[in-house]
Structure formats: structure tokens, C-alpha cells
Design a protein that fits this description.
175 residues; alpha+beta; Aminopeptidase; 7-stranded mixed β-sheet; 5 helices; globular; binds coenzyme A
Length: 175
């Protein structure tokens, strides 16, 4: 199976809006439309395509002022039937690489990548920890009423991109 990870284009918007109105994300189609357009117009979206169809996406932006050198992962999603095939890791690493380039173009440096997730998102937490993110704080139910949100930070000093696993074709992997 060949997976292509690339920057989203205008032609991807309809599919992204459908994808991000999933009940698991507690969003409807109007909220998804707004969210996708915000990120497409003002921030950054990477998509993972299998046979030309989007099966995953990662939304990112910079956080605060540029001198802070902070990147923010807003959302990472892989369609259920395409999970455990390395799409999520590839999308995340590609987004971190793009953040590095973004800051370098401005003669600045990406220092840290920040994201929040929920305690019950075990797969996401495993992925973040594999890449080197550390859970640094708990926010209680800040974003998710009745839930438990966590803050994860990746310090770029200890980060190594492009490990061998990224280059392995998805169908070489078990599980
Ligand atoms: C989290 C998510 C994006 C992971 O995507 P994925 O494509 O399935 O993940 P990958 O195949 O790239 O996995 C990479 C690593 O993540 C970890 N991982 C991912 N899913 C896992 C699972 N179900 N169980 C254990 N580890 C898991 C593993 O460390 C894995 O590395 P390995 O294959 O070498 O063991 C996907 O499960 C998803 O979309 N979940 C729902 C949405 C979500 O929770 N998003 C995060 C919001 S903050």
C-alpha cells in the first residue's frame, strides 16, 4: 500500500470537512466547515492519501509569537480502517518537519511542539510518547466538559526525525 503525505489543496476541502464532522470529535458539519477553512486559509493542513483518497490529516499552526519557536498540533486523525499502518506517525512527523522549515525561513528555530489530548485517547498518547512528547500537565476538563485533558510537549533538542520506520511501506507492518 502506497501512502502519500502532502499539504492539503483546495480540492481536498470537501473530504476534510466530511472527515472532521465525526461523532468521535463531537463536531457537526458546520463546525467542521469553519474549522477546516480556518486552518486551510490561515494555518496548515497535511493529508495522508491512499490510492488518491484522504485517509488521515494533521492540522497545525504556530503558537504565540514567532520568537517563541512554538508549534501547535491542533488535530490528528486517521480513518478507523487505516489505523496502525503508520499514517498517523507520518502525518505527525511531516507536520513537525514543516514547522521546522517554517521557522527556519524566518531565521528562527522551532523549539517545542505542543498539543493537548484526552486521557482516554490511549492510541494517540502512545504515538506522541513514541515520538518523544512528554505529558507535562493535566488541564482537568478544560476543553472537554466532564473529560480529562492533558498537555504534551515535544522538546526539539531531543527529537530525531525520519527514523527507519517512516520509510517502511505500510503493508510491511503487523497489527
Ligand atoms: C491516534 C491516531 C491518529 C494514530 O494513528 P495511526 O495511523 O493508527 O498510528 P500509527 O500506525 O502511525 O502508529 C504509530 C505509533 O503509535 C502508537 N499506536 C498507535 N495506535 C496504537 C494502538 N492502537 N495501540 C498501541 N499503540 C498505538 C504505536 O507506538 C505506533 O508505533 P508502532 O506501530 O511502531 O507500535 C489514530 O488512532 C486516530 O485517528 N485516533 C482517533 C483520533 C485521535 O485520537 N486523535 C488524536 C487526537 S489528540
Amino acid at each position: 500500500m502506497t501512502v502519500k503525505v502532502s499539504k492539503a489543496t483546495k480540492r481536498d476541502l470537501k473530504r476534510l470537512i466530511e472527515m472532521f464532522s465525526d461523532p468521535d470529535l463531537k463536531t457537526n458539519i458546520d463546525e467542521s466547515d469553519w474549522f477546516v477553512h480556518c486552518y486551510f486559509d490561515y494555518h496548515h493542513i497535511n493529508v495522508a492519501k491512499v490510492k488518491g483518497e484522504i485517509q488521515g490529516a494533521c492540522f497545525w499552526r504556530i503558537e504565540g509569537e514567532r520568537y517563541s519557536g512554538l508549534g501547535w498540533i491542533e488535530n490528528l486523525w486517521v480513518e478507523e480502517q487505516y489505523r496502525r499502518l503508520n499514517l498517523g506517525e507520518r502525518l505527525l512527523r511531516r507536520s513537525i518537519d514543516d514547522m521546522k522549515v517554517f521557522f527556519e525561513k524566518d531565521n528562527k528555530k522551532l523549539r517545542k511542539v505542543v498539543l493537548t489530548t484526552q486521557v482516554e485517547r490511549a492510541s494517540a498518547r502512545k504515538l506522541y510518547e513514541k515520538i518523544g512528547f512528554r505529558n507535562v500537565a493535566s488541564l482537568g476538563d478544560m476543553y472537554d466538559p466532564g473529560g480529562h485533558d492533558l498537555v504534551y510537549i515535544l522538546d526539539m533538542q531531543g527529537y530525531s526525525s525520519n527514523p527507519a520506520s517512516q520509510e517502511r511501506p505500510a503493508n510491511d507492518r503487523n497489527g
